[in-house]
Write a structure and sequence with these properties.
Largest sheet of chain B: none
Strand content of chain A: under 5%
Structural class of chain B: mainly alpha
Distance between the termini of chain B: 42 Å
CATH class of the largest domain in chain A: Mainly Alpha
Structural class of chain A: mainly alpha
Low-confidence stretches of chain A: 8-13, 232-240
CATH superfamily of chain B: MetI-like
CATH topology of the largest domain in chain A: MetI-like fold
CATH topology of chain B: MetI-like fold
Number of helices of chain B: 12
Mean pLDDT of chain A: 84
Oligomer: heterodimer
Strand order of the largest sheet of chain A: 4-3-5
Radius of gyration of chain B: 27 Å
Number of domains of chain B: 1
Largest sheet of chain A: 3 strands, antiparallel
Distance between the termini of chain A: 47 Å
Number of strands of chain B: 0
Helix content of chain A: over 70%
Helix content of chain B: over 70%
CATH architecture of chain B: Orthogonal Bundle
Strand content of chain B: under 5%
CATH superfamily of the largest domain in chain A: MetI-like
Shape of chain A: globular
Number of helices of chain A: 13
CATH class of chain B: Mainly Alpha
Number of strands of chain A: 5
CATH architecture of the largest domain in chain A: Orthogonal Bundle
Order of helices and strands of chain A: EEHHEEHHHHHHHHHEHH
């Protein structure tokens, strides 16, 4: 390349060597140093790929050993999760995880979204700078602290004080409010039906079906909890502990509030100011603007906030382990007022039962099987949430 | 001047504003606003009650035998005057050091690669996707990885301090990469162009312009991840941190030999004592006291990080 010379136009360059690309590139040593440094940075960046591969490999390897070695009858339809006796009933863990996640989101969803709307739409700059750090502190509270709080405060002072019957009434009220919202939304749709495409209508019918199905499941759940036996006489667990799934779930919900709030606030902040101005210009009140303009514009991001919250609640370990009311085994339950183990708490309790989980038949492998199921669930949720977040980004 | 006939000008402004905003008449709107404020208020209230509960529970232990509580170890009875958190502090200290030594340089280097060097190709996309997905993996799953790699494969099923430290370093790595990359992205490209213009190489630009400008943001991210690592318990439980009794070690606090030993950490001490409280109620107070210490550590780190970020955000407008 040395023969490519650039014709010099300035008078000062007369008499010097012609300016070449080689000359511009500088000494070769410098270039070698540069590519060496780039190589080091590249290796650092690829560490994340190696970690991902290692996680998947270790999970799949041990989970496969479990899946091929276990009697499948012992993983389904048993009366509980007793890993040390070779009974690995997955529905026990899955249903407990579902209960904890649903109750946690009943706490974190409204509180997180409400906080986000207030901070983004209503709060003055001063209030914001005062209240935002509080949420950030809450986000930094370690989960063991929430576990302690759930066991020694939420369980006796909130869950047990209000009592099972009190909570059933509150549950029924939430159910009625939910039904009212769904009916209101459906009526609104019927009124505005003219001019919408068939695709939109199909989508709306699907959403409505899902909402009605959720209502039926909620109804069934409230009914089954109301009809289940009083847990006071329960002497079932190897080590009886105080606390119950509901207390743990509220604790998990508290941990999830800041996450839901921050993702939802990002979504609200990405809605262009012009939309709000246009709405105000048409004479809409602040509340109307917020509900009819800003929230629909940010709906993808808000859905993402809920999904990320669900994923976080599903993966939360210590709160349920400490306040969930079960030690190293759990009987199947669909009631939040009994002790139980979620997938995560089941793993943690298996690992603490002895100092050394390694080499006890399939018990060690069952840990990885549960971990694999959890990993697949949270990964799916996170990927779906990522799609929703990108949708907001692309729109504005 | 038709306006002046209506009265003084400030009066008019007020009336017009009232007509437009209808303050006081918009009951539904104020109700909505109050409900939103209430959700935020409840979140703040929860934090206050939580801090209050922990301090009330732990205060007697912290005030009566403060010195013993620092230097004491894990005991089987809560009335034992040698009961304390020293082993937890040592474990958490070395775990924090491990995280700082391993995760900080690798995480920041990875962020530099992604923001400054990475070409737009498949490899970069794979790295980016894997980092984003790792950030959402539940912490217990990292514990499973640590248990498999550093306990089962590397150490014959024996748990050790380095297993806990490396596992937590892996756990916070994606957080460091994401926050550092954000800080580097915020560096104005005019700074880079200026440096290139006077003949700097890429590494010179990064070293003299990009990193100094991004330093506060990177520092905030590393501090947040460090406080996360210090408060995290689930992965440590999985790799076999000791919740029950751990024989006190002879030798100094800074003895590097303990990296190969069985270990505990602050959050694990708390979990252990909460479990013991079913059998011996005095442990609940001890757990409360340990939480006060852990929270003080974690909140201090978080506050410094947040203040640092706000300070530089204001400074740069």
């Amino acid at each position: 390349m040395a023969d490519i010379s650039i014709p010099s136009t300035s008078a000062g360059a007369v008499g010097r060597d012609p300016l070449t690309v080689d000359a511009l590139a500088g000494p070769r040593k410098r270039a070698r140093k540069e590519s060496f440094i780039k190589g080091i940075f590249f290796i650092a960046a690829s560490v994340s790929i190696i970690i991902s591969i290692l996680i998947v490999a270790s999970l799949v390897r041990e989970a496969w050993t479990f899946a091929t070695g276990v009697e499948w009858a012992k993983t389904w339809g048993q009366n509980g999760w007793f890993p040390r006796q070779g009974v690995y009933d997955m529905p026990t863990l899955l249903v407990s995880s579902l209960i904890v996640t649903v109750v946690a989101m009943l706490v974190a969803g409204p509180l997180g979204l409400g906080s986000a709307i207030y901070l983004s739409e209503y709060a003055s700059k001063k209030t914001r700078s005062l209240l935002k750090p509080v949420l950030e502190v809450l986000a930094g509270v370690p989960s063991v602290v929430l576990g302690f709080f759930a066991l020694f405060f939420i369980s006796p002072q909130v869950i047990e004080r209000i009592g099972r019957n009190g909570w059933l009434v509150i549950g029924a009220l939430i159910f009625v409010a939910y039904i009212a919202l769904v009916i209101g939304w459906a009526r609104n749709l019927v009124q505005r039906e003219a001019g919408t495409s068939i695709g939109t209508q199909v989508k709306r019918i699907l959403i409505l079906t899902a909402l009605v199905a959720t209502a039926l499941i909620l109804l069934w759940w409230i009914n089954s909890v109301a009809g289940s036996a009083d847990p006071a006489a329960d002497n079932f667990f190897t080590v009886k502990r105080s606390g119950q799934l509901a207390a743990a779930a509220v604790g998990v919900g508290i941990l999830t509030i800041p996450l839901v709030a921050s993702v939802a606030e990002d979504a609200l902040a990405s809605v262009p100011k012009e939309l709000r101005d246009a709405s105000a210009g048409l004479g809409a009140r602040k509340m109307t603007t917020t509900i009819q303009v800003v929230l629909p514009a940010a709906v993808s991001g808000i859905v993402a906030a809920f999904i990320i919250g669900i994923s976080r609640a599903l993966g939360e370990t210590m709160v349920v382990f400490m306040a969930g009311g079960a030690a190293d085994a759990a009987r199947f339950t669909s009631s939040p007022f009994e002790g139980g183990l979620t997938m995560t708490a089941g793993m943690a309790s298996l690992a603490t039962g002895t100092d050394n989980v390694v080499g006890e038949g399939l018990t060690f492998q069952s840990l990885y099987f549960v971990g694999f199921v959890l990993f697949v669930l949270t990964l799916t949720l996170n990927i779906v949430a990522g799609r929703f977040v990108n949708r907001v980004r692309e729109k504005y | 001047m038709a306006v002046s006939t209506l009265g003084s000008s400030s009066d008019v402004t007020k009336r017009v504003e009232q007509e437009i905003f209808r303050q006081g008449s918009d009951l539904k709107g104020s109700g909505f606003r109050a409900a939103l404020l209430a959700t935020l208020g409840i979140s703040v209230l929860i934090l206050v009650v939580l801090l209050g509960q922990v301090i009330v529970d732990g205060w007697p232990v912290l005030t009566t035998n403060f010195g013993d509580f620092w230097s004491g170890t894990l005991r089987s009875r809560s009335s034992d005057s040698k009961l304390g958190i020293s082993q937890g502090l040592v474990g958490s200290f070395w775990i924090a050091i491990t995280v700082a030594v391993l995760a900080f340089p690798i995480g920041i280097a990875a962020a530099i690669y992604l923001e400054e060097y990475a070409p737009q190709n498949l490899m970069t996309r794979v790295i980016d996707i894997s980092i984003r997905n790792l950030a959402g993996v539940p912490s217990v799953v990292y514990g499973l990885l640590g248990l498999f790699l550093f306990v089962k494969l590397a150490n014959n099923g024996q748990s050790s301090l380095y297993a806990g430290g490396i596992t937590l370093a892996i756990l916070v790595l994606p957080i460091i990469v994401i926050t550092s990359a954000e800080a580097i992205r915020a560096v104005p490209s005019s700074l880079r162009q200026g440096a290139y213009g006077v003949g700097a190489t890429k590494w010179d630009v990064i070293r003299t312009q990009v990193l100094p400008f991004a330093a506060p943001g990177i520092l905030t991210g590393t501090l947040l991840s460090l406080s996360r690592a210090v408060g995290e318990a689930a992965p440590l439980i999985l790799v076999g941190a000791i919740t029950g009794r751990l024989a006190p070690r002879d030798g100094s606090f800074l003895d590097l030999g303990q990296f190969g030993d069985r270990f505990t950490a602050m959050p694990i001490v708390i979990v252990g004592w909460v479990q013991e409280s079913g059998r011996d109620a005095g442990f609940a107070a001890a757990a409360g006291a340990a939480i006060v210490v852990l929270l003080a550590l974690v909140i201090a780190m978080n506050s410094v990080a947040v203040m640092l970020r706000n300070y530089f955000e204001n400074k740069r407008g």
